[in-house]
Amino acid sequence: MAIAGYEILDSLWELAMKWAFVALELWWAASLAMADEIHDLFTQQRVQKVAAERAAARAARRRSHRPTKTATAKKDEPQSDNPVSSKTEHGITEIGSERPVGWHTGPAYTLVAKSDGTFRFEGRENVAHIGKWTGTVDRKRFDELANFVRDAGYTSFQDMYFNDASDITPLYTMIVQDGKRHVVQDWFTGPEKLREIERRIYALLDGAQWNEQPAEPEAESD
Questions:
Q1: 118-125 sheet: strands from edge to edge
Q2: Cα 181 to Cα 155: distance, rounded to the nearest angstrom
Q3: pLDDT surpassing 70 at residue 65
Q4: 162-201 tens-digit pLDDT
Q5: Which of 3, 24, 50, 190 could bond 161 through an S-S bridge, CB–CB 3.0 to 4.6 Å?
Q6: How does 159-189 read in b/e, with b if 16+ C-beta sit within 10 Å?
């Protein structure tokens, strides 16, 4: 009965936390007057993280109410004479960055580059290319950046580096490595390696080949 009570309270608490976080994100999105792609991925990541942490806490409480079992000793497994070498490929298929429209005077944009050399870009303010664009970047430069991102331990970074200053707009970065996505929201308080990654992602556009801007679809008339 006690365990069931804990589960009910946990479920209610988890629901309240989800709605509180969603409300905060909606307020933030509304304050920027637009919903940005990488910002949305960050929101999803945060909601999933909260749910996972609550699930882990529930599981830990259940285990604490169960009688402990004596662990069976495991036999030592023979070690291979030829240990597997560390993976040399970066495994990164997407790298992106995004700066929402806010109180800053810098560029506002979304950039996503892929390992095949293609990229898509949406410029909003204070950039040379306004609107939605596609193009290609040097694949060697993408691989160099991907190796730097991997070696910097990007996936071990916190998902948020917060700053309570009211005149700062965060910068988002994103990678997909080995099929898993990781997004970081930086209010310019993150580690220096993250700051260098932020600079290098945008620098991918140096020397990029831009395709002609696709025509916007015409609005359907009634």
A1: 160-161, 180-186, 171-177, 92-99, 108-114, 118-125, 131-136, 209-210
A2: 9
A3: no
A4: 887 767 889 999 999 999 999 999 999 999 999 999 999 9
A5: 190
A6: ebbeeeeeeebbbbbbbbbeeebbbbbbeee
Tokens 């000793």, residue located: 73
Residues in a beta bridge with 110? 98, 122
What's the predicted TM-score (pTM) here? Answer: 0.67
- Residue 201 CA: distances (Å) to CA of 29, 72, 118, 145: 23, 50, 14, 8
Output the pLDDT for position 220.
Answer: 60
Torsion of CA 58, 60, 66, 71, to 10 degrees: 150
Provide the pLDDT for residue 166: 66
- Judge residue 6's burial from the number of C-beta atoms within 10 Å of its C-beta, 0-12 exposed, 13-18 middle, 19 or more buried: middle
Q: Which residues of 115-151 are buried (b: 16+ CB within 10 A; e: fewer)?
A: bebebbbbbbeebeeeeebebbbeeebbeebbeebbe
Rounded Cα distance, 183 and 158, in Å: 9
Q: Are 3 and 62 in contact (CB under 8 A)?
A: yes
Q: Which residues does 148 contact at the CB level (< 8 Å), separation at least 6? A: 196, 197, 200
